Amino acid sequence: MLLCSMVCPYALAQAPCVFTLSGNVSDADTREPLAYSAVELQGKNIRTIADSNGKYIVRNLCSGDHILVVSHHSCKPLTVKIRITQNTVQNVVLPHTVNELTEVRIVEKYDLKPSAIREELNSEALQLKKGLSLAEQLQHVAGVSMLQTGSTISKPVINGLHGNRLLIVTNGVRLESQQWGNDHAPEIDPFTAHRISVIKGAGALRYGSDALAGAIVIEPKTLPSNGKLAGEIQTGYFHNNRMAFFHTMLEKNLKTLPALSWRLQLSSKTAGNVRTPDYYLWNSGMREWNGSAMIGWRKPNYRLEATASVVNSTLGIFLGSQVGNVTDLNEAIKRETPLFNRNAFSYGIERPRQELMHVTGKVKHVYYTDSRHILHTQFSYQRNHRKEFDLAMITDKPELDLVLSTAQLDLWYEHKHDNWMHTYGSVVSIQENVWDGSRFFIPNYRSYQAAGYYIARYNKHKNDIEMGIRYDYRDLTTFRNNNSGRTSDERNWNNFSGTLNYQRTVSTRLQYTLYTGVAWRPPSINELYVNGLHHGTSSFEIGNAQLKNETGYKTGARILLNGFDSAVQFDVYVYNQFFIGFINLVPDTPATLTIRGAYPTFRFVQTTANLSGYDVKLTIRPTDYIQLHTSLSVVYAYDVSNRTWLAQMPGNRLNTECRVALPNVRTFTGNRIIAGVNSVFRQQRLPEINTDYALPPGDYHLLQLSVVTNLGACMLHAGINNALNVSYREYLNRFRYFNDEMGRNIFIKLNYTF
Q1: Beta carbons of 473 and 426 less than 8 angstroms apart
Q2: Greater pLDDT, 56 or 77
Q3: What is the helix (H) or strand (E) element at residue 367, kind and residue range?
Q4: What average pLDDT is seen over the chain?
Q5: For residues 394 and 66, which has the higher predicted lDDT (pLDDT)?
C-alpha cells in the first residue's frame, strides 16, 4: 500500500505526455507564412522546423508550463511562456520586416484563402529561386510548364495554354508587350516579387476577359511604415554559363514625415554561352539590367502611390539555329550535335540577337471613408521597345524594330455589406504599335479597349461564393503602306465573360472548391496578319486574317485533404475547358526557303478543341524533420473537329522533392538539405497526321541537390541542377530541332537582409 501510494501519483503525473502543440508562424506586416521557421521548447531538447506553409507541430508533450522559442531568418527570436493542459493551437506572429517584438495570438481557426484556384510562391520560396527567369521560378508549380526558345528565352505555360491566353499582372498593372510571340519572354524583373500567385481557375476575371489559361499575379512588398531604413543585397553565380547576378533594394519610412515611404531597387545579370553535357552553344549569352522606384503617401482616409520601372535585356540567339538551305536544315534536325556551331565559351553576344527595353509608370490613388467603402483609381503607361537583329547584316540597324505603347485607366469601387463584398470596375485603354526595319512581320496598328465588370463575393461560416460578369469591347485598326499610299483596315469585337466559384471548408481536414466560367479573346495581331520570318524562333510564320473569336468554357474542382495532424496533405485539381475557335500554331511542311536561309514553317489554324487534365500534389511529413513533396500534371488536348490530338502540348510531368531539416550548428541556423527529381515524359498524344519536323524527344529525369543555411541576417544557398549531367531535349523548346538542353549547373547564392 505504501509503495502504491508513492508510485501512483508519480505515474499519474507522467501520463499526460500525449499532447500536441501546433500552429502557424506568419509575418507581422504581410500575414504571409514564414516557411522553415525554427520552433524550440527551451530546456526540453525538443525542436522542429515549420513547413513551407509556416505550419509547425510538436508531439508528445507533457502537461505543464513550457517556454516556446520561435526564430526565422532575419528575425529576432521570440520567447513566450505557454501552459499545456490539452492539445493546443498557438499561432505566432513574428516581426519579419521591422524586427520588433509583437504579441503572440492564440486562435483556433484557419485563415481562409480566396476561393480562386491558385498556387502561391511566398517570399521564402522565391528566395531559393533568385537569379532565375519568371518561367523558371514557376515551372515547379503543379500545372505550370515552360515554353522555350533556346536557352535564354522562356515563358510560362498553364495547363497547356500560354501567350495572350495567360495574363501577367505585376504591381497591379497588366503587362502589355509583344508577348504574342513564342520567343517574346515576359519583360518582368523577378527580383521585385515578394509573392507570386498562379490563378488557374476562374479568378482572373478582374484582369481581363482573355485569361483563358489564368493569370500570374506578381506582388511587391508593401511599403514600410516603421520609420526605419531597411534593405537587402542578393548575389549569386551559376557555373554552367558563368552567370552572375546582383540585386539590391533600399526602403525607408520617414520618421519626420510618417506619411511618406519610398523604395529603390536595382538588379543585373550577365551570362555567357550555355554548355550542354557535350558542347557549348555559341551566342547563347545574355545581359540584363533592371531598376524600379516606388514612393507612397498614406493618410487616414486615402493612399497615393507612384511607381516607375525599367527592364532592359540583350539576348543572344544560338548560332546553330540559323541554317542556309533546306538540305542543311534536314541534316541539322537529324544530327545529335549542331551542324553549325563554335564549341567555345564567350560572354560576347553577336548577331542574331534581341534587344529589349520595357518601361512602366503607374500612379494609384485609394480613397476610403471606412473599411466598407474603398475607391481605387489607377493610371498606367507602358512602352515596349524590341529590336531583332538577323544573322546576315544588311545594315547596322535591326532588321525588325517594334515600339508598342499602352495607356490604361482603371477605376474600381469596393463595398462591403454584411457578408458580401461587391466590386464594380471599368477599364479603358489605348495601344499603338509602330514597326521599322528591312523585313515585314506585323503591320502597324492602333487598338482601343473598354470594359466593365461586377464581382460579388459572399463569405459566411464555412461557405465562400464568388461570382462575376464582364463585358469587353475591342477595336483594332491596322495600317499598311503600298503603291497607292497608306491603307487601313478596322475590325472590332465585343462579348461577355463570367465566372462562378463555390468553396466550402468542411473542417480543418477538408476543403473543396467548384467553379465554372466562360472567357473569350479576339485573335491577336500576329495570329491575323503575321507573314514572315520570326527570327527569334528560327521559323517562318503564316497568319490567317479570317480567324474569329476564341471562346473557352471551363469547369473544374479542387479538393484539399489534411490528415494525421497535417502529416499528410493531398491536393487534387481537375478541369475541363471546351474551346470554340481554338487558335493553334502548328508545324507546316515543307520548310520555307528565304534569302536569309531555310526555316521550319508554322501556320495559325482554328478548330474546336477540348483541353482537360489534372494536377495532383501530395505532401508527407513522416517526422518533424523530413518533408516529401510530389506533384503530377497531365494535360489531354484534343482536336474535336479533326478527331485527333492537338500539336505542341506539354507531356506528363512529375516532380518529387525531399527536404531534410538539420540541427543548428553554432550560429548556423535553419539548416536543410533539398533533393529533387524532375521527370518529363515523352508526348505520346500526337495528331494522326504529324507535320512536325521531328518526333517529340524521349523521357528525361533531372536530379537537383542543394543546401541552405542562415548565418545571422545572411542566407546561403548552394546546389547543383541536372546533377547527373543528363543529355536531353525539351518538346516545348523550339530549338530542340538543333541542340540539347543545359547540362550540369553548380550554383551558389547569398542573400543579406538588414
Answers
A1: no
A2: 56
A3: strand 353-370
A4: 85
A5: 66
Q: What would the pLDDT profile of 416-469 be if each residue is shown by its tens digit? A: 888 899 999 999 999 999 988 777 778 899 999 999 999 999 988 888 899 999
Per-domain residue ranges of the chain: 16-94, 118-267+275-753
Diameter over CA atoms, the chain: 117
Cell matching residue 744: 550540369
Pick the CATH number of 16-94 from 2.60.40.420, 2.60.40.1120, 1.10.10.10, 1.10.1740.10: 2.60.40.1120
Compute CA 711 distance to the chain's CA centroid, rounded to the nearest angstrom: 29
CA neighbor of 406 nearest in space, from 432, 388, 386, 437: 432
Grid cell locating 669: 541556423
**C-beta of residue 291 within 8 angstroms of C-beta of residue 309:** yes
The Cα 344–Cα 355 span in angstroms is: 23
Which amino acid, 360?
T
pLDDT at 103: 30
Q: Is the dihedral of CA 150, 155, 160, 163 positive or negative?
A: negative
Helices (H), 552-684: none
pLDDT value of position 320: 82
Strands in 508-567 per DSSP E: 510-521, 531-534, 539-542, 550-563
pLDDT at residue 50 is higher than 60: yes
User: Residue 374: what pLDDT?
Assistant: 92
3-class DSSP assignment, residue 386 = strand
Question: Could you tell me the pLDDT band of residue 348, with boundaries at 50, 70 and 90?
Answer: very high
The DSSP-derived string for 184-208 is ------GGG-SEEEEE-SSTTGGG-
Q: Is residue 255 within 8 Å of residue 227, measured between CB atoms?
A: yes
| CB-based contact 671:661 (threshold 8 Å) | yes
pLDDT, mean of residues 701-714: 93
Closest CA to 308 of 298, 290, 294: 294
H/E segment holding residue 5: helix 2-14
Determine the residue type at 271.
A
| Euclidean distance between CA atoms 590 and 691, whole angstroms | 9
pLDDT at 8: 42
Topology match between the domains 16-94 and 118-267+275-753: no
Topology, domain 118-267+275-753 = Maltoporin; Chain A (2.40.170)
C-alpha cell at 301: 482616409
22 Cβ contact list (under 8 Å, min separation 6):
55, 56, 57, 58, 87, 88, 89, 90, 565, 566
Please write the tens of the pLDDT for every residue from 349-389.
998 899 999 999 999 999 987 778 899 999 999 999 999 88
Distances (CA, A) of 554 to 213, 498, 612: 10, 10, 9
Looking at residue 161, the DSSP 8-state letter turns out to be B
